[in-house]
Specification:
Helix content is 30%, strand content 29%. By secondary structure, it is an alpha/beta fold. The strands form two sheets. The protein has a seven-stranded mixed sheet, sandwiched between helices. A two-stranded antiparallel sheet has the order 6-7. GO terms for molecular function: methyltransferase activity.
Length: 206
């Protein structure tokens, strides 16, 4: 399954411009707002999961963040980011991996995931994601997870997804996390359709 995911996303990022995909955002909201609410400071260690060609890393650099890791399953997506950032790319740690198989070598203050988790439709993959997240996040750290809302689309990029709310994500993460914030977001695609997202922020106990 991991190989199938890799092939799919490499094809997407090799054949489509960044603004030719439904999830494109010129300004990465509500992610920036939620990072602020989670108490992110410029020296906070942040990992952006399934970043694709997201402009969040650009915004974080622009705001003076100095400890940012970007993870994606697609090498082509990461290369697009590097090219866009130019010399600034050297300030970022880049990880090409399927998040379910990632073995983080350090811990982070904030785990950010906009629209990667909902592609994990298999219970074993969801459990693996939760295990990696728990290992990667410091006690007291925050996990910001955005997915299609229960009334949102049932597919994205031709793939089935699992729609979530704060309760369903909280059950997967377990008792080691407490809900800090949940909110809806109406994402406008490049062709002006609207997709309903939910963003939930969880704090790791301890």
């Amino acid at each position: 399954m991991s190989n199938d995911r890799t092939t799919h996303w490499e094809t997407i990022y090799q054949t489509k411009a960044e603004d030719q995909v439904s999830w494109f955002q010129q300004t990465p909201e509500p992610s920036l707002t939620l990072l602020g609410l989670a108490g992110a400071t410029p020296d906070a260690a942040i990992v952006d999961i399934g970043a694709g060609a997201s402009h969040l890393v650009d915004a974080l650099i622009g705001q003076g963040f100095v400890d940012v890791t970007v993870l994606d399953i697609s090498q082509a997506a990461l290369e697009a980011d590097r090219t866009r950032l130019g010399a600034e790319a050297n300030r970022i740690r880049w990880v090409c991996s399927d998040v379910t198989a990632w073995q983080p070598s350090r811990s982070y203050d904030i785990w950010h995931d906009r629209a990667a988790f909902h592609f994990l439709t298999d219970a074993a993959d969801q459990a693996a994601y939760a295990t990696v997240l728990t290992r990667a996040l410091k006690p007291g750290g925050h996990a910001i997870i955005g997915t299609f809302a229960p009334e949102g689309p049932e597919k994205c990029s031709g793939l089935p997804i699992v729609r979530h709310d704060a309760d369903s994500i909280g059950k997967l993460l377990g008792d080691g996390f407490e809900l800090a914030d949940t909110r809806r977001h109406e994402h406008k695609t490049p062709w002006d359709s609207v997709q309903l997202f939910q963003f939930s922020t969880f704090r790791k106990r301890g």
